[in-house]
């Protein structure tokens, strides 16, 4: 492969390839400590609830990588080659970098399938990729965030408008839009981490673009550790919204870009059940997945980070 090719390392959290891989996956998340039988049973039950023993979730990320490759090919034919690197499943981030090196790639751009930067999330992906790249002699540049890319905001605007139209057809009652993202430990605030600020900037821009004024931001999917995590959690927020007289809620989990456990279970099953108990209707915006606008936002972020463009 020509050394003029630019490798694109597309990084994401990762998910098991099948139900049989859940224990290994969970053990990796726990830094090599196997989960208790009770913890494993609970996580397995969540996957069974959303996939019923069939496991399409891994294919979502594969499709995103392929769609980004096609988008880059259309913009700059022959210049970029995409590789996948996952945090907690194979191919791991380091595997992706090794594959680049094996193919003769000398220069690369890394991007994470998450628009918002935190040293505890995207920063960790970049650190692992950078260390492996340096060890193998690859020159790498990284996209840290793209949370206000105009095409990302437009893709979210379209989804907000569509979701609100569905709720409008569901009957009368006040509607609240709830933006959400994966919670992180509260200590990121002491670190002046940009994660929370970037999420609020995305929510504000998307709401303004869609003409939404009645919205709030909440958190979801917090880890089970002794330290405090960012809140309030969406289940708590739903109770508050119900007490305020709202009958309809549009969930907009803008911290995520594809259909996976935190969306298909935490929102579609858990949050919807909580809303029903409170006498409310909850709809969720469609996830970005391989939306062309999202793919273009990713591709343009990659090309902007490509210092060697035009060589």
From TrEMBL:
Its UniProt entry gives the catalysed reaction(s) as: Fe-coproporphyrin III + 2 H(+) = coproporphyrin III + Fe(2+)
Location(s) in or outside the cell:
Cytoplasm
Q: What class of enzyme is it?
A: lyase
Spell out the Gene3D superfamilies in the cross-references. 3.40.50.1400
The answer to keyword Lyase applying to this record is yes
- What residue ranges carry the coiled-coil annotation? none
Which positions carry the signal peptide feature in this UniProt record? none
Amino-acid positions noted as binding Fe-coproporphyrin III in the UniProt annotation, renumbered to this chain: 13, 30, 46-47, 125
Q: What does this protein do?
A: Involved in coproporphyrin-dependent heme b biosynthesis. Catalyzes the insertion of ferrous iron into coproporphyrin III to form Fe-coproporphyrin III.
What is the official name of this protein in its record? Coproporphyrin III ferrochelatase
Native source organism of the sequence? Paenibacillus cisolokensis
Q: Which gene encodes it?
A: hemH
């Amino acid at each position: 492969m020509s050394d003029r090719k630019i490798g694109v390392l597309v990084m994401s959290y990762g998910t098991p390839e099948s139900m049989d891989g859940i224990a290994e996956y969970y053990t990796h998340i726990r830094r090599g400590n196997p989960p208790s039988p009770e913890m494993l049973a609970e996580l397995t039950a969540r996957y069974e609830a959303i996939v019923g023993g069939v496991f399409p979730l891994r294919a979502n990320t594969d499709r995103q990588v392929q769609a980004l490759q096609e988008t880059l090919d259309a913009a700059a034919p022959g210049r970029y080659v995409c590789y996948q690197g996952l945090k907690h499943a194979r191919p791991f981030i380091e595997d992706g970098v090794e594959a680049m090196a094996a193919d003769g790639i000398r220069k690369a751009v890394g991007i994470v399938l998450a628009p918002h930067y935190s040293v505890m999330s995207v920063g960790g992906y970049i650190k692992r990729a950078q260390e492996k790249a340096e060890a193998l002699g690859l020159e790498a540049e990284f996209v840290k965030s793209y949370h206000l890319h105009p095409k990302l905001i437009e893709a979210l605007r379209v989804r907000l408008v569509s979701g609100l139209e569905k709720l409008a057809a569901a009957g009368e009652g006040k509607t609240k839009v709830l933006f959400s993202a994966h919670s992180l430990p509260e200590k990121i605030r002491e670190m002046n981490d940009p994660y929370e600020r970037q999420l609020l900037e995305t929510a504000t821009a998307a709401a303004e673009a869609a003409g939404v004024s009645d919205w709030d931001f909440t958190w979801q999917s917090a880890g089970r550790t002794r330290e405090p995590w960012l809140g309030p959690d969406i289940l708590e927020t739903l109770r508050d919204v119900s007490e305020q007289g709202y009958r309809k809620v549009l969930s907009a989990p803008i911290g995520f870009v594809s259909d996976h456990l935190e969306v298909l279970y935490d929102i579609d099953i858990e949050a919807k059940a909580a809303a029903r108990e409170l006498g409310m209707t909850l709809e969720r915006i469609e996830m970005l997945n391989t939306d062309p606008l999202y793919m273009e936002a990713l591709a343009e972020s990659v090309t902007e980070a490509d210092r060697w463009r035009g060589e």
